[in-house]
Write a structure and sequence with these properties.
12% helix, Double Stranded RNA Binding Domain, single chain
Amino acid sequence: MRKSIRHSLAVMAAVLGLGQALGQAQNVIDVDIFNTGEVKAIPVHIEGFTGDVLSLLKFDLFVQGFEFVERSKAQFTIKGSNTGGSVSGAVYDQLKRGFILNKRYQGGNLRLQGHTFANNVVEAVTGSPGIGLTKIAFRQFHGRNTEIHVADFDGFNAQRLTSDNSISAGPDWAPNGDTLFYYSYLKHNPDIYSHNIRTGQRRTVARFSGSNISPAVSPDGKRVAMVLSKAGSPDIWVASVNGTGFRRLTTTKAAESSPCWSPDGRFICFVSRAGGRSALYKIPANGGAMSRISTIHVSNATEPDWSPDGKAIAFTTQRGGRFDICIVPSSGGSAQVVATGEDPSWALNSRTLIFTNRSRGKRVLSVLDVPTKRVKTLPRSFPGNCSQAAWSN
């Protein structure tokens, strides 16, 4: 597993380096994810691609706000081919009557080249970076046990990280993309570990009496927030990623859970029942008073995740036995239901969410384009139930 991950990273660098840009211009499309009206997808026409490359292009673009139409109705035409072990592609702007992207990709496999081309299409059309080369980590059920797995964001190239024959859960990426933090019952107690994906080295971060769960790595990769119950009730704590310098942030008698960081590293958002029901709160990462983040129109908020641009917090709410994904401004305010599901995690573009959905009685991973409210289940399915997906940077 370690060898193949290292190889894919090296190939990725090669593909990015060999693509030749013959002409490129950028549009800038600023989409308000809190727009309650209809946000239309960008109409494009695709021609020339076949097989897996065509499928992955459609998936990548769909979950980033594109829709596929006949040529006469398209704003952009995406032309290309994937023959001879190489992907080539171009984007023609029908309004500007000119090509805004024209590239040929060499090195690596066709899937990697296709994802790279999709990223270039997204950036050329919208001005925002694409998410095609990102990874996800998630837990997968193996009978009564759960193990941590990693995969490309569309579910392909999945690889099992842990084989503890126990309960491993709550994965979170370090910003370098090489290390995952999670908790495991490997030693018959929920303890927090860091796990280097490249080397396979695993280290204990927190192993105290009681619960050590829900690790969340700071944006600079130096600290980790977590939930510890060693002082009594479950509280939010912060420590260095090597498991030293533990500091308790919350001291309520209620249970706290699900910490996540603001992208500037100044605050930690979490869930507390201090007010009697589960609600979102934030607290300075260096210590201070906790304050509530209002979620008007929605109560019982859990499982928050702060968007990379700092503007929004996604979270889960349970209403009448059903779980829904919601978003709210990070400063608090009116919350919106955007999908049915739980465990939301933001992509680096701050518009796409991966979450746990249910299909035919099974837990599956789905991706939501928040502005258009369109959902796609990962095209690559897994043998067991999956949940708690975390998106890499």
